[in-house]
Amino acid sequence: MFRPWQEIGVDLGTATVLIYVKGQGILLREPSVIAMVRDTGEVKAVGDDAYAMLGRTPGNITAERPMRDGVIADYDLTEKMLQAFVRKVVTGPGRFFRPHVMVCVPSGVTEVERRAVLQATREVGARKAFLIEEPLAAAIGAGVEIAEPSGSMIVDIGGGTTDVAIISLGGIVVSESLRVAGNEFDEAITKYVRHNENLLIGDRTAEEIKTKLGSAMLVEGEPDETLEVRGRDLVNGLPKTVTVRSSDTVAALEEPIQKIADGVRQVLEAAPPELVSDVIDRGIIMTGGGALLRNFDELLRRTTGIPVVVAENATDAVALGTGRALDMTHVLEDALISDNFLRR
Questions:
Q1: Burial (Cβ within 10 Å: 0-12, 13-18, ≥19) of residue 198
Q2: Rounded Cα–Cα distance for residues 330 and 239 (Å)
Q3: Which CATH number fits domain 7-136+319-343: 3.30.70.260, 3.30.300.20, 3.30.420.40, 3.40.50.2300?
Q4: Do 253 and 214 touch, CB atoms closer than 8 A?
Q5: Opening angle at CA 146, ends 107 and 302, nearest 5
Q6: Which of 163, 179, 240, 336 could pair covalently with 233 via S-S, beta carbons 3.0-4.6 A apart?
Q7: In sequence order, what are the residues at sequence separation of 6 or more whose Cβ sits closer than 8 angstroms to the Cβ of residue 254?
Q8: Using an 8 Å Cβ cutoff, are 273 and 234 in contact?
Q9: 3-class DSSP string for 132-155
Q10: What band does 204 get if pLDDT is binned at 50, 70 and 90?
């Protein structure tokens, strides 16, 4: 059926924004960063261009992340950033017939936070706005048949939040949303390097260490890889280079990873026994960028005794599921939140 508007799914993440356009796939994948001129409020750059400015801006320009812990921290900046991203992908008839937009949110958001996301989505020109909870979107994107009367467990580790949920019959039966995810991994690495090496590093360097060396645990026989890291010596204030090892990241990330493992256990303990039985049979599915941390799946398997797999499209699963959910509103009618919510 021809529709004179575009349908798009938005993974409005703390670290990255992904936008899926129906029939075209993921057309945008850029950091959740916006650069503004302080005095005038003019948007200088968004996404990749703004990310390159982090920590490097002169006094009259500020580069910021308007999302924090998976929700809007600065409403005005988020609206401007989202507007710029939507303009990049909405083409043709969609410019005149406003798009239908599905946005994902963490499972633990408050009513105020839901309203903020819906309002921001309407303000950027959406004809119709919907919200879907992240673990549900991740399950759809990972290929889980969510409408079946059997339990599937999702652990979605994003930039600001980790969402753990057991899904059955098109809805979330039990869930836990933790404000522990990729950004806290970066902070833990920064603190570890500062404490153990007396070296001050920036957010981008911490993210590089996480991406290249980050490990939840080291399996016997694995090499302890190394990376040279540059920063400022906290003793004399001069530039300094140190060598960081994979084993260092295991020590640095122990606390946040333990919090996620505890969250997984809590969801399993709160779930009905029939669904836990299904999860034991079907395994736990990990999605999100944090799921790519080396040996994280093995650590969860040892913690729970349940098979764990990382989704093939882990980093894209939420965005894909958010877009595909627009074709599943009949199945998800009880799980979705539409802009009718704003009129209450």
A1: middle
A2: 59
A3: 3.30.420.40
A4: yes
A5: 70
A6: 240
A7: none
A8: no
A9: EEHHHHHHHHCCCCCCCCCCEEEE
A10: confident
pLDDT-derived band at 108, boundaries 50, 70, 90 = confident
Angstrom distance (rounded) from CA 336 to CA 20: 18
287-323 pLDDT, tens per residue? 999 999 999 999 999 999 999 999 999 999 999 999 9
Q: Is the dihedral of CA 327, 159, 309, 316 positive or negative?
A: positive
Rounded to the nearest 5°, which phi and psi values hold at 213?
-120, -20
Query: Percent of the chain at pLDDT above 70?
Result: 95
Q: If you write DSSP's letter for every residue of 38-68 in order, what string do you get?
A: TTT--EEEETHHHHTTTT---TTEEEE--EE
Q: Side chain identity at 179, as an amino acid letter?
A: R
Q: What is the mean pLDDT of the chain?
A: 90
Rounded distance between C-alpha atoms, residue 242 and residue 172, angstroms: 46
CATH of domain 144-180+255-314: 3.30.420.40
**Alpha carbon 262 to chain centroid distance?**
19
Closest CA to 83 of 119, 110, 53, 107: 119
Write the pLDDT tens digit of every residue in 63-84.
888 988 878 888 889 989 998 9
